[in-house]
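Worked Example 4.2. Consider the chain below.
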Amino acid sequence: MDEHELIRQVQQGDEVAFSQIVAAYKDRIVNYLYQFTRDYQKAVELAQETFIRVYFKANQYRPVGPLSSWIYAIASNLAKTEMKKMRRLPTVSLDDIVAHEVDENAYAEDPADPGLLKNLREALNVLHPRYRLPVVLKDMEGFSQEEIAQILKKPVGTIKARISRGRNFLKKRLEKALAGGRVPS
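Applying the procedure from the previous section yields the following structure tokens:
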């Protein structure tokens, strides 16, 4: 069954169709939201809120583009709102500090994690979200530049430039890391 038929059924109250949409997009949306928040639990919460809105606003969906673009746009808007809240109210949980220390030490000593993947993760972590999000949507999620422009509500030219700049940043950072040079944070 195609996406437009699924959302049409959701518009008629079909919960099975809704669960199929959730199953198809849940992991991708959580991963995408993690790129915004850098907090897995927050990403999961925002993903749940995204799908709640998909269900209750299904009648507002217009099939002018892919369903995925509409879902990602909802997720992006929720994440941007959450990021604004987080900037206004900086808080640190003691649990987060302890978990971060444990994760960092375990990560550094994990022999199964290849160096290139580790370097790529580190480079993505320091890449500004303005560039990271379009790169992730394009190169990891497989969206077209036009779809990314719809999702992030930016002109296509801006998206093209941000993808290019983001890729160049990652390329330089990875080349330096692979050459054995110390990469500044």
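Residues 96-113 have pLDDT under 50 and may be disordered. The chain has nine helices and no strands. Compare this with Example 4.1 before moving on.
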